[in-house]
Specification:
With about 240 residues, the chain is of the alpha/beta class. The chain has 7 helices and 7 strands. It has a single domain, classed as NAD(P)-binding Rossmann-like Domain (Rossmann fold). The termini are far apart. Bound molecules: NADP nicotinamide-adenine-dinucleotide phosphate.
Length: about 240
């Protein structure tokens, strides 16, 4: 029987490429996104199953994912913008970023991990960012959510180390998906830059999943060749 993979963020750039790759690799793919029409179009195009869900709605996520016997979770649902420094980010924007990127992630993890533990099988892959550990790489609140994701991945590995469940976190540099439109910077971010492509991320995920069961490729940083982080800035008074 085909293994089941849940892909959140499947209506987005990376999620769609991951759904396509996992279908090609023989998985049954359950695709999650909020936009019903986009999700229906994706399912029509790829042949996956669609679950329209706002992951901030804990009860709806529990109802939808609770009984799915997932062997794999690729959690790509997330938001990035707007492009504001921390002290200028309004409370409702903070709540939205924390709601989708953190509370939403926990809402998805609860039922999925419970089911994986019942069956003693599963791989969880979280789509993180270099913003989680590099200051200034993205908006401050977004970056804080991705820093928290790094902690979540590490703590899950700790909590689950007496089980066969695997947890992997991909810390991505710039991937050309359109998400940077949320910063009003798609053109500035992509024109002339050779970004990582969504299908490159999908190939890496396929590699993580193909590792022997006793091997957890736990943390990966994936960057465009010409994008680097590091150095310091020192301003004069
Ligand atoms: N692209 C990059 O350069 C990059 C770099 C580092 C990390 N990442 C991370 O990789 C992940 C995917 O990024 P992407 O570039 O593919 O972004 P994207 O194209 O904007 O896709 C984002 C996905 O998240 C879904 N989503 C947003 N809010 C949701 C909610 N409340 N409930 C359920 N789904 C929701 C969207 O679904 P709907 O559109 O249907 O609402 C969409 O499918 C994100 O977590 C992002 O932070 C991306």
């Amino acid at each position: 029987m085909a293994q089941t993979a849940i892909v959140t963020g499947a209506t987005g750039g990376i999620g769609e490429a991951v759904a396509k790759r996992l279908l090609e690799d023989g998985f049954r793919v359950v695709a999650v996104g909020t936009r019903r029409e986009a999700l229906a179009a994706l399912c029509e195009k790829l042949g996956c199953e669609g679950l329209p869900l706002d992951i901030q709605d804990a009860a709806a996520v529990e109802r939808a994912l609770g009984d799915l016997q997932a062997d794999v979770l690729v959690h790509g649902a997330g938001i990035l913008g707007p492009n504001l420094p921390i002290h200028k980010t309004p409370p409702e924007t903070v709540a939205q970023l924390l709601g989708v990127n953190l509370t939403g992630m926990f809402n998805v993890l609860r039922p999925v991990i419970r089911g994986m533990l019942e069956r003693q099988n599963g791989t969880i892959i979280l789509l993180g960012s270099i913003c989680g550990h590099v200051a200034g790489a993205g908006p401050g609140i977004y970056s804080a959510t991705k820093a928290a994701m790094q902690s979540v991945a590490a703590n899950l590995r700790f909590e689950l180390h007496e089980t066969p469940l695997r947890v992997a976190e991909l810390r991505l540099g710039r991937v050309r998906t359109g998400i940077h439109g949320q910063l009003d910077m798609n053109t500035d971010f992509y024109d002339g830059y050779e970004c990582v492509l969504p299908e490159d991320v999908a190939s890496t995920i396929a590699h993580v999943l193909s590792a022997p069961p006793a091997v957890d490729i736990s943390t990966i940083e994936m960057m465009p060749t010409r994008q680097v982080v590091g150095g310091t800035r020192f301003s004069k008074s």
